[in-house]
Automatic annotation (TrEMBL):
Protein's UniProt name: GNAT family N-acetyltransferase
Taxonomic classification: Archaea, Methanobacteriati, Methanobacteriota, Stenosarchaea group, Halobacteria
N-acetyltransferase domain span: 1-166
Matches recorded under InterPro entries: Acyl_CoA_acyltransferase, Bact_Acetyltransf, GNAT_dom
A GO MF term: acyltransferase activity, transferring groups other than amino-acyl groups
Keywords associated with the record: Acyltransferase, Transferase
One Pfam match: Acetyltransf_1
Coiled coil: none
Amino acid sequence: MELLPLAPNTPHFHAALRLYEAIHGERPASTEPRFRAHADHTGYRGFVALDGQEVVGFTYGHDSKAGRDYHDQLHADMPRSVATEWLTDTFELVELGVAPARRRTGLGTRLVDRLLEGVTRRRVILTTESDNHAAQSFYEQTGWEAVHEPFVVSGVDMTVYGRRLA
């Protein structure tokens, strides 16, 4: 298994979009602009996992900054003390996707570990659906803690997870 950078305008980027579609039931045409915009954010890092030529996982994130929708929505929703702790000097893990046949093999952990190597922020945050118990279990077993819930996005209850890096 090889981990390579996830960058726009590469075949691996488009394969990651197709994997995202398979996992989430969304069309790459609707997610591609979002993935591309995130790649332009300060501190962007992303990786794909290749098994031969097949993309079987991906992850990416970037620095959390005031003025960006996600950061500002979280800041408005969280109690002040939680926002101060978790949205200061923070990296956002935006996406993690692993092909269903490759789950529970350690690939998700490898991808997250690689993504966070070299991140200079003191904390990292992410959100996952509150009823996605498999994802919650994964994050809790790998050192994350629920720091705020519910965080409602487009009518969906989400749980905000955080992890201290330094």
